[in-house]
Amino acid sequence: MTTPSPISADGLMPPPGCPAHGMAQNGLVRLPEITDPARTYEGLRKQYGPVAPVLLHGDIEAWMVLGYRENLEVMRTPKLFSRDSRLWNAFIENRVPADSPLLPMVAWQPLCVFADGEEHARLRGAVVDGLSQFNRRGMRKYVTHYTRQLVAGFGAGGAADLVRNYAEPLPMLVVSRLLGMSPDKGPLLVEPTLDLLRGSETAAASNAVVTQVLQDLVAYKKTAPGDDLASRLIQHESQLTDTEVVEHLRLTLVAAHQGTVNLIAHTLRLILTDRRFRGNLSGGHMTLPDALEQVMWDNPSIGTIPGRWATSDTTIGGQHIRKGDLLMLCIAAANVDPEQRPDVSVPMHGNRSHLALSAGPHECPGGDIGRAIADTGIDELMSILPDMTLAVPETEIGITSNWLTTRPDALPVRFTPPRSLGDLHPAQGAPVAAQPLPAAAASPAVPFPQPPAAVPARPRSWWRSLLSR
């Protein structure tokens, strides 16, 4: 791949003769080193059009698909753009080291996301059937239960970081239980699952830890099945192997947790900082589902999806793609493609044509679960703590970016402590937060706990509280 002129890691054209940060010698952008993803994507779009050459870890070449139409074409044409990573020429030519942080994301595994055709239908069918047993009403009970448990842990102090204390642990508490894990495992798995998508040097180790926990879970569920995803996959008529069951549990755990963490964090940031949003919401013109949809347009939980592999030489977006080339689907850039959204300031309420959940045969099968967790969790949180305000100026909210995702660093807030924290049913009075994962193997899962039989009367809806203020 060659480039007419280089683009720096923040998306700006560097001065002549000045080496740009994050640049390889041939002038391509290194994705792991970009500091301003949105600016970088627009710089790439201006220079190359809807498909741009980039570099991954180890200066391995790839194509970044930036255009909305081009992303849809790749997503909907598996015969030309396969999910089977064994086609990647970098693998075939032994250019990917064994310790590469790319491997947890792109190394072939017996997963529906690495299969096409009949094999994809067999594996995906088992996952879809397993997830379908969780209805929205039942999900709401558990999200409400864990939201109150979390608030009981940090609420007495009248201050919290909504990313660390809420957005990160809540999805894992819920999703780990849906998989069939015991209550103590959720907090321990938060950090490893987040680490998997950072592309860090510890990504492979984190992947190994999560996999071991799930292997132990499957071994236990084979002798003590329950109403959970692990048991459903084990018993499914598709006859998944133990390895296939473990890998699909890992996929569900990581994707559901990471995606929902980012969705909650970005939506809470919007609620706390955007005056137009709060005004519209309190006036009844915008609902929380509208806000979630807007976030999925503007800040998709997974900004870049690796990947697709060309099954033959082809052309897309004006670029010649060789057989075996890797394509990175840049959802964040596609959702703001000027051809699709000439004015990004126009609200996208009621429009679900964004690509935050992908499209085509590999569209995310658990998108409704993540949306339900975020919707219920934010609504319940704001009902319990209706007077939450930022504890720092808006300009001091940093953004954590990596090659696949972006989200707020922290959301420090102040609030009036709830009058009766005991009514929120804390777990032994202790806060639930992300913990380092111990080396010990997972203990067997226990039956799914029932939410409190008598839930305290719920405060009035938080947008009505905003209106009254």
Structure report:
With 469 residues, the chain is an alpha+beta fold. The chain folds into two domains: 1-98 and 303-354, Uridine Diphospho-n-acetylenolpyruvylglucosamine Reductase, domain 2 (2-Layer Sandwich), CATH 3.30.43; 107-298 and 356-468, Orthogonal Bundle (Cytochrome p450). The chain is built from 17 helices and twelve strands. The chain has helices at residues 37-48, 68-75, 89-92, 103-106, 117-131, 136-154, 163-167, 169-179, 185-196, 203-221, 229-235, 242-273, 275-282, 288-298, 331-334, 367-384, 462-468; strands spanning 51-55, 61-65, 81-82, 159-161, 304-310, 314-316, 319-321, 326-330, 389-390, 399-401, 406-408, 412-414. Strands 1-2-8-5-3 form a five-stranded mixed β-sheet. The chain has a three-stranded antiparallel β-sheet with strand order 4-12-9. Strands 6-7 form a two-stranded antiparallel sheet. Helix 6 packs across helix 16 (367-384) and helix 8 (169-179) packs antiparallel against helix 12 (242-273). The radius of gyration is 22 Å and the shape is globular. The termini are far apart.
Quick take:
By secondary structure, this protein is of the alpha+beta class.
